[in-house]
Amino acid sequence: MSSDNTVISVQALGKRYEIYDRPGDRLKQFILPRASRALGLPIRQHFREFWALNDVSFEVGRGETVGIIGRNGSGKSTLLQMICGTLNPTSGSIRVQGKVAALLELGSGFNPEFTGRENVHMNAALLGLRSDQIESRFDDIVAFADIGDHIEQPVKTYSSGMLVRLAFAVIAHVDADVLVIDEALAVGDAFFTQKCMRFLRMFMQNGTVLFVSHDTASIKNLCDHAIWLDQGRVVASGTPKDVCEQYLEAFYEAQQGKSSSTRRIEKVAITGGATSKDQRSDLINRSTLRNDLRVFEFNPDAASFGTGHARIREVQLLNENGLPMSWIIGGEPVSLRIAIAAHEPLHNPIVGFFLKDSLGQTLFGDNTYLTYKDQAISIDPGEMFQASFAFLMPILPSGNYSIQVAIATGTQDAHVQHQWIHDALILKSESTSASTGLMGIPMSEISIRRIATPD
User: Which position has the higher pLDDT, 118 or 127?
Assistant: First the structure.
């Protein structure tokens, strides 16, 4: 990346804290090393080192939106504070070109005793606006925040949602070059969140954004690049889809142990060698507004993770006659069949799927949990079983899609993943009649009719 296009440059960045086990150790550290140095004695540390960040390096180009993910305590907030200049690094360097506006911890930068009006003036001034600029934009800021007469009340009386509204309204009107947002939008209501998203997408056309979130769907939806931090270090950096998949795998492994790569039974034939059917042949002459979806064969070696107590052996899309399909038309009834081999006893298995777009955004999906919640099912080791989901295939805009499948045991909220395959089936939408949105719903009728006008 050329230096002219680099807006944020982070090189070998580190932040160290000194952890004292007892209050008296802090006094010892202040006095004893000096005395030891004067007497020529060995110097002893009376604290433990904690590196919140250690050797972090990356660059962000002009106009890029970069997502940062990681568990609590991974160093995300520390990194953002140093980029914003509110925290000094212990080692390494940070270079930022342009004006930075940040929405970090809830209420940060606000004086709780000041009114909303006073905090707007103070915050906007800190972000580089002159008094006349603040006055000319004040009404727009208040309108964006939409907190009514509360603007004249002390901020300490605000709810968390009102704090976010006012803070975001300010940074949306200071002509920043770089926006830094640290999950604060999670406390806003749905209407305000949509307003913020509209602003963000407009800002992203020319500005640079650093976006921190635990929501991998938001990272994949909004960002051009993703960085995964863990224990103060960069674990992965790359496309949002790849990084989020690695993060998701690590999340489950942290709860249930490392994924297994062993295969203790041979693959079993599922379909008896049935030939995939081109579903389009029956309908190709019936519609001028088709959505042709090419279906690629199941890839058993696609990236996956899990305990290995069960293995997914086949994933197919079938027509109404139970035949596997190589082509589908959007709007047609299909069944997704997932065949599984049990390697260990499985009690109440949960089988599920997601259909995702090329950015990894989930378009829709379902699982078997609620259907079989009150029906005990037990599968013995070596047994084969399958789950089927029947639905109308939506109309998909042109592009690549994937079906992600998984087998787990447990409940909807607490479960163990035995195998999760990221891209089990690949679909390619070759032509489409979708007019707008992430996917289209087949219309049963579209019409325009004259209606009688009232007298």
Answer: 118
